[in-house]
Amino acid sequence: MMLSKASDNKLMQEAGKEDLDLAKGAIQELFNKINDIKRKAEQSEVMVQEICRDIKSLDYAKRNLTTTIKALKRLHMLVTGIEQLKVMVEKQQYREVGNLLEAVTQLTTYFEEYKNVPKIAEQQKQINELKKSLRQKIYDHFTSVIDKKVQYTDKTPAQLNDICFVIDALGPTSRQEFVDWFCNKQLNEYNRLFRPEDETAKLEQAERRFTWIKKTLRTYDENYTAVFPPSWRMDEKITEEFCKRTREQFVHILEKTSAQLDHNVLILTIQKTLEIERQLNQRWAGSTVSAYNSEESEAFSEEEVSEEEPEENENPHSAEAIKKRYKRFQKQKDKERRRKEKESKKASEQTLESKFKGKISSCFDPYMHVYIAHEDKAMSDLIDRLLKEESWSVEDERTKILRSCTDMIYYFKESITHCSQLSRNQAFFDLYKLSLIHI
């Protein structure tokens, strides 16, 4: 039995050794396979990197080629646009000039980083020369109309309106320069008529100044309402400049004549000034601003409706195609601008209602002491007269109020009411203190 067990153990040991050898062989084979897979993976990675490197180079080449083609197309559009712009300027087709100029200006922004390239610098030089020539033509044309060197016909407003479209295309700076120039041109006659050293510049002649601005605004309504875009508010700018110059001249006159300033002349001038300010405020009431904004919005809407997609057989470098591309680009910009205008409309309506209040009349505030001195004397004279005329008898035993007291209170009330119509600043407070002293 012992021999049998020993024999079984030996067999088991031999079987275990064989199994161990088999396991070692399997492990070695697995290790070899893993090494082989690792080696192939490294080879695959190298291959992928080489392929990607080639693809990346091709991608860079494609991107550079696309950018170059796009730049060449835009350069061709720019050159074509400049040539067509020259033709339109010569033909004086200013509406087309405005469209093309906006498109060309937009294209030049793309080449801003290439401005040192000779070809781009040459195109930019041509654009600048064209803009300079356009500005001169614009000023010459308006000067001829203003100075009546050419006959003003029914077609004149439309022609001038097209020119305004070009001014807008030249940019905000050019537009502001033109607005300032036009205002000065309109006020040249005012400066000539009311020179400080002339008799017409005196305070007694203030009414003539205000008659002049009312006449000028009527002339503007007849000749220029259809010329300038409502958003320019050209008539408002002219009036602002008139108020500024009138105020400056009044200040000069008041400083010069402060020692011998006449009360009646001062009060009459203030009343006339307040009246013209009230009339100007009425002209630019909130309803007018709303109408302007409404008209402008409708104009923009019509432009959007009229936009057309380019036809398949249309030349992409023609003037019409350039205009359409630019209009599509401007569409979102116009929507954003209208949104901002709508937001600011309410504020504009409120400010315009009192826009001209005090524009001129505020210059009289430092000289209201003349009015206060006159009221002081008038109150003293009134009290002296009432004291002399007073019978010191009470007409009504229930109230026990003297007749002179009623007259005096009535005068004080009328005086304060009158002063409030002239000024509600320091003079109003000074009159209040004066009333307390006399009471």
What does this structure look like?
This protein has 439 residues and is mostly helical. The chain is built from 13 helices and no strands. The radius of gyration is 44 Å and the shape is elongated. 16% of the residues are buried. Residues 287-310 have low confidence and may be disordered.
Concise summary:
The chain is mainly alpha-helical and 439 residues long. It has 13 helices and no strands.
Radius of gyration: 44 Å
In percent terms, what proportion of residues is strand? under 5%
Largest sheet: none
Please, how many helices? 13
N-to-C order of helices and strands: HHHHHHHHHHHHH
Class per helix and strand makeup: mainly alpha
Mean pLDDT: 80
Give the overall shape, derived from the CA principal axes: elongated
N-to-C span: 151 Å
* Helix content range: over 70%
Low-confidence stretches: 287-310
Total number of strands = 0
Comma- or semicolon-separated keywords:
elongated; mainly alpha; 439 residues
